[in-house]
Write a structure and sequence with these properties.
Blueprint lengths: L17 E3 L5 E3 L22 E9 L4 H19 L33 E6 L38 E7 L2 H14 L4 E12 L28 H7 L17 E10 L1 H5 L3 H8 L23 E2 L2 E2 L6 H5 L10 E2 L2 E7 L5 E11 L2 H4 L1 H10 L6 E11 L11 H4 L1
């Protein structure tokens, strides 16, 4: 499925199992501790972890130097947390006794749980406060209001964002909590979202997960092993936009909070559910036959037209009906209690990385909002677009190329 809202040898280690990393820190089965160092930031092609804490921030300082200093401190703290250095020599339980600790302490004793942190900048950061107006790429602008959107401004946009993914919710929450604490006086949290049960696979080694409607999601997602596809669809090139040359090696992140009408969906027949999605619920195979990864045959006839409904979600979102554009998704389920009507406040927190949102996301979402059978069961309540700078080199900091 295209996606809601666009939508080796040795002893095996289970999720949450730990081993000793090369530097003596603990790491989960998802791999060694992450690092900002490299061509790209962690948390994009990193195998999708099971838990998410995402936060968007408003920059409240008016000082460019303070903003740069914040990004330096976030980079340093992020590196330490991704290595599992939650304590000492100056940390949660050491340092000046009459001063607040340098770490809040709730992750002491926990493994890194595959923690990855990813930092992005929003279009509002280029409004002139910090001398960056001439460096805003043309495509870095607020996403349009799509048909049937019911956006909450308090859950949308932001000057900065941090995506924390881990296989332990406390590790992810700890990371955002400490970055927010470090940013006191320079930034304030605008909105945040907790997520569980990844709804996308970013590696061919991962099984395709299911969303809260019970269907496998993101089958056509770009995978980490597809180097050519990543270059074509995910990583920004230096010549994409002269004003955005600083973003080369980075990507764009679309974040959408999509509420699902769970109770209404649960009353639909299995036939109707599969018709709406265009895939079988059991295996995730296209209704035209085969297995999950069989290419859908949108022309294969049935008794009353094509076997895959022309307005089904899989057809509306499939790359073949969207100029062959693909995206890399890292979405998560969410349940934020109940509404005042007693229904679940639940759905998909859609996260997707791409090279050009104006070509890869906006046309597709516009079509989905107007034609997709699934749109009747969805309501988009939050929206944001961020530019995600490349990784760090030479002991620098995330976003350094923007301020060079």
């Amino acid at each position: 499925m295209g996606g809601l809202g666009v939508l080796a040898g040795g002893t095996a280690l289970g999720v949450g199992a730990t081993r000793l990393g090369d530097d003596g820190t603990t790491a989960t089965a998802t791999g060694a501790p992450s690092s900002f160092a490299g061509a790209h930031q962690p948390g994009i092609v990193t195998p999708a972890q099971d838990r998410l804490h995402f936060a968007a921030f408003d920059v409240i300082t008016r000082s460019r130097d303070d903003l740069v200093d914040l990004l330096r401190r976030w980079t340093d703290a992020g590196e330490r947390m991704m290595r599992g250095e939650f304590a000492g020599p100056v940390g949660a339980t050491s340092g000046p006794y009459d001063a607040p600790p340098d770490d809040t302490g709730e992750a002491i004793g926990l493994p890194t749980a595959g923690l990855s942190l990813t930092i992005g900048v929003g279009p509002s950061l280029f409004d002139g406060r910090f001398g960056l107006a001439g460096r805003r790429p043309a495509v870095l602008e607020r996403l349009p209001h799509f048909p049937a959107d019911k956006l909450d401004p308090a859950r949308s946009d932001g000057d900065l964002c941090v995506q924390a993914c881990a296989d332990d919710p406390q590790v992810a929450v700890h990371a955002i909590r400490n970055l927010a604490r470090i940013g006191f006086g320079a930034v304030s949290v605008r909105w945040s979202q907790l997520g569980f049960g990844r709804t996308s696979s970013t590696s061919t080694a991962q099984q395709t997960p299911r969303n809260l409607f019970g269907f496998k999601d993101g089958t056509a997602n770009v995978k980490a092993e597809e180097a050519d596809a990543l270059d074509q669809h995910v990583w920004v090139a230096g010549d994409d936009d002269p004003r955005g040359a600083w973003l080369a090696g980075g990507s764009y992140l679309v974040a959408r909070r999509i509420n699902m009408n769970i109770e209404t969906w649960d009353r639909q027949s299995l036939r109707d559910q599969e018709t709406i999605i265009g895939r079988t619920k059991a295996e995730g195979a296209p209704m035209s036959g085969g297995g999950e990864f069989t290419e859908p045959d949108f022309a294969l006839p049935g008794r009353d037209g094509p076997l895959i409904d022309v307005a089904s979600h899989v057809r509306m979102a499939h790359p073949s009906t969207n100029d062959d554009h693909r995206i890399l998704r890292r979405g998560y389920n969410f349940v934020d209690g109940s509404t005042d009507l007693g229904r679940l406040d639940a759905g998909l927190f859609f996260l997707a990385y791409m090279r050009d949102p104006a070509r890869q996301y906006v046309p597709m979402q516009t079509k989905l909002a107007k034609q997709d059978l699934l749109s009747e069961y969805l309501q988009h309540t939050g929206s944001a677009l961020f530019a995600v700078p490349p990784g760090v080199s030479g002991g620098g900091f995330v976003g350094e190329s923007l301020f060079a």
